[in-house]
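Here is one chain, start to finish.
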Amino acid sequence: MNKLAVPHDGFVFVGDGRKALFLRNEGDEKFANFITVNVMAEENPLTHEQGSDRPGRAFQGAHSNGRSAVESTDWHELEETRFAQRAAVALEAVVRERAAPALVIAAPARTLAELRRVLHPDVKAKIIGEIDKDFTKMPVWEIEKHVLAG
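Its structure:
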C-alpha cells in the first residue's frame, strides 16, 4: 500500500465493533496532526454472556422423523454489526457537516465490510484509503504513524 497523504481537515475513522474514533487532520499532507473529534464506545459482552437458553430444535414435518438444531444467535457479532451501522451514520454526519475533503477508514475486515455496505455513495467517494487493522486501542500519535505509513 502506498503512503497516505491525509489533507488538512481530512478525517480518519478508526473503529471496530465496540469503539469508534473520529480523527481530523489539523495539520496538512506533509505535517499531519490528528486530533480527536468524537469517540463512540459501547459495552458488548461475549455471546455466552448475552444469550439465554440452548438453541431450539426444528422438526421436519408430519411424515418425517428428522430433527435438527436451530443455529444459535451470535449476539456479540450481531451487536458489532449494529454498532458499525450506528458509527456509519455518525461518520456520514461528520463528513458532511465538516465538508471533509478526504476520509481514511481503519478497521478490522468485518467492520470495513459493514461500513462499505451501509455508507452513502457520496461519503464513499471521499475515501482515499482503507486499512484492514484494528487501531482502537492505540494512542492517537501511534494511529497517525500507522495511517501515514500506509
